Amino acid sequence: MDDSLASDSSDDDPATFPLAMPMLAGPGTITTAMNLSADGGLINISFIILAFALLCVITYVVFIFGERFIRYIGRAAMGVITRLMGLIVAVIGTGMVIEGIKNAFALGGS
User: Fold this and answer.
1) pTM of this prediction exceeds 0.85
2) Given CA atoms 48, 49, 52, 54 in this order, what sign does their dihedral have?
3) Inter-CA distances, 103 with 13, 18, 96, Å
4) 37, 48 in Cβ contact below 8 A?
5) 3-state helix, strand, coil in the chain (%, to 5)
6) What does each of the 110 residues of the chain score in pLDDT, given as a tens digit?
7) Dist. CA 57–CA 90, nearest whole Å
8) What is the DSSP code (8-state) at residue 108?
9) For residue 105, which phi and psi values (nearest 5 degrees)?
C-alpha cells in the first residue's frame, strides 16, 4: 500500500467533508430556488438568478482564498466560526421542524 497519499491528506481538511456538495447544490438549494421563483414573473426570477450567480462567485472566492483566510484568522477563530455556524444551522432546522409540525396539525393561525 502506498503511504504517500495517506501522509498528504489532513484529517481536518474541509474539502473531505461529505456534506459540502449537498449543502451547496443539494435538495435544500433546489427547493429554495423553486419556492422563490414560484411566486414571481420575469423580474422576480431575474433577481433570483442574479442572487444565485452572486452566491456562486462568493463561494468560488471563499474556496480559492479559504486557506489564506484560515491562516489569517487562526485555527482557534475558525473553530469558533464553525461552532457558531453549526448553531445557526441547528436553529434553522429546529424552526423548520416546529413550522412543519404546526402546519401538519394546523396548530398555527396562519
Assistant:
1) no
2) negative
3) 40, 31, 10
4) yes
5) 80, 0, 20
6) 444 444 455 556 655 555 555 666 667 777 777 777 777 778 888 888 898 889 889 888 988 998 898 889 998 998 898 899 889 888 988 988 898 888 888 775 55
7) 26
8) S
9) -110, 10
